[in-house]
Amino acid sequence: MSKNENRSKETHRIYIRSQRRWQEVPEEVYQEHTRFHDTYRHRMQGRGLCCCPRNKWWVCDADCLTCEYRNADVIASLDAPIGEENDDLVLMDTIADESVAVSELVSDRIVLEQLFKRLADLMPEAENIGKLRMQGLSDEAIAKEIGIPRTTFLSRIKAAKKLLAQEYPDFF
After folding, report:
1. pTM for the whole thing?
2. How far apart are CA 40 and CA 17, in angstroms?
3. Could you tell me the end-to-end alpha-carbon distance of the chain, in angstroms, rounded to an integer?
4. In which domain, by residue range, is 87 found?
């Protein structure tokens, strides 16, 4: 057997800290495990959260919060004050809020209600058409249901859409 064949069948051991035992694994699993944990440990060391000594790297399970080698002096809370001691600024205050403002939602709701009212003025059967469309009916079936020819139905919708697009350009 050649040296490369012998190496590919070689098994490795990883330490499972939570179970306090060694586990034999194939080389591929060992390599993936080592790569992940090394990357994670280096990232945490760069942030100052991990102080794991080199001779204890085999213990690393990528759980810095429960590790005996974590740097307890570093506070990683979003509620921790930053800056001056008398400053009330916390890390959470520096994170941008990307949610939509309530005032924008309210104004959009008002405009949408106006749009629906205008549509009802232009086409009294618009609400019924919307319900039929939600049921998955075709244009022909909807026209038949409301009692007008399909071409008339389509031309009314086209005319209403054109007028609403002029009156509410932000919505069309």
Report:
1. 0.42
2. 16
3. 73
4. 3-94
